[in-house]
Amino acid sequence: MLYSKIEGEGKPLLILHGFLGMSDNWKTLGTQFAAGGFQVHILDLRNHGRSFHSDIFTYEAMVQDVFEYCQANNLDKVDIIGHSMGGKTAMFFAAKHPEKVNKLIVADIAPKYYKQHHQDILAGLNAVDFSVKPSRNDVEAILAAYISDFGTRQFLMKNLYWLEPGQLAFRFNLPVFNTNLEAIGKELDVNLVFNNPTLFIRGGASRYILDSDFENIKQHFPNSNIETIPNVGHWLHAENPKMFYELSIDFLKK
């Protein structure tokens, strides 16, 4: 069963993080949505955070995980927010189980195929040799040689934890990512359609959702709108959480 953090009372709202993320990334926004009248379930997807590790890493498997989570927690109908890989998982889930989803919010990802582009990040993560028992500062210095963006490094560093005294490790399943990375870019099958209200929120400085993607989005999500948060990149919910929350809560409360 997937690990989750549950907060608040009201309509169930699932939040699905992106690749190499975890539920902790959504802690502050989750509390806001709980205060807004939702029972918030922030999940750790398989091979991430505190959830189980598996050699199987596909959207089909992640959709089944979310379905089984809903069944186990007696969640008949939910709203879903998904970012990046979590947004693609949410799209697949909503299209395959439309009876389970009231409203869908997709953050900075389109239904299209994405060519793999995490090579530098994976190279940095694979360069960390935990057998020599590096400190947190040592790990960050290694990552800095591969990843110039400070924010990205801090995002990745949140995955560090003490496996035992003096021994750090990453929470995510790096060996499986090394062999299954192409699966993250998979597009929605042409016949998958979700007709309920859907909101796409993109970062104005991000290249993940282009104007040229609007037609494809409408084909899969005919009852959708697209909003842009200006001057933010792919981690739009972290860069401008206020506007992200306002757009989301207005949509969910309609």
UniProtKB/TrEMBL annotation:
Instruction: Please list the GO terms describing molecular function.
Output: hydrolase activity
Q: Which residues form the AB hydrolase-1 domain?
A: 11-109
Write down the InterPro entries for this protein, in alphabetical order. Answer: AB_hydrolase_1 (IPR000073), AB_hydrolase_fold (IPR029058)
The residues forming a coiled coil are none
Source species, domain of life: Bacteria
Q: Which UniProt keywords apply?
A: Hydrolase
The record's annotation in Pfam families points to: Abhydrolase_1
Protein name as it appears in the record: Alpha/beta fold hydrolase
Which species is this UniProt entry from? Flavobacterium frigoritolerans
Taxonomic classification? Bacteria, Pseudomonadati, Bacteroidota, Flavobacteriia, Flavobacteriales
